[in-house]
Amino acid sequence: MDNRQAIGSWLSGPRAAAEDMGVDFGYRGQRLGLPQDGPGSVAPLGRRFGAIFVDWALCVIVVYGLITRGSANVVENWALAVFFVLSALTVGTLGFTPGKRLFRLRVVSEAGGRLGFGWALIRCVLLCLAIPALIWDRDGRGLHDRLGRAVQVRM
Predict the structure, then answer these.
(1) For the CA atoms of the chain, what is the radius of gyration?
(2) pLDDT computed for residue 1 by the predictor
(3) CA 116 – CA 17 distance, rounded (Å)
(4) Given 3-state DSSP classes, what are the helix, strand and coil percentages for the chain, each rounded to the nearest 5?
């Protein structure tokens, strides 16, 4: 292996380097028994980011208009609290937030059924910490989803 190949594998990441050596990881969600594409498959990252952006914007608008009455000093703290309540209640009961519904996503348990309210609550606490949401496994699930025994799928 020359220096260009070593630098290329370093820039591409460990998964690309392992795939170049012949390791087959399969598709995202295969280990969970999910289809490769279509309804029920693992949600793509772009849709998940779009959904959380819509949910956050909705929370900021609600907080700015109803709770802080235009005071921008404490909007972020209140918005996080409203985001937690919105996520816990809607994911725990319906399986999706308004943003996820807009982007046609749903949160289900690893077994494929509805996510229980307790697991949804754990997932939302970890999501509000933000760091677990930035750590992903090879199925594209954040640490908050893994510990909450959840997976986000397409509708």
Answers:
(1) 18
(2) 53
(3) 38
(4) 55, 10, 35
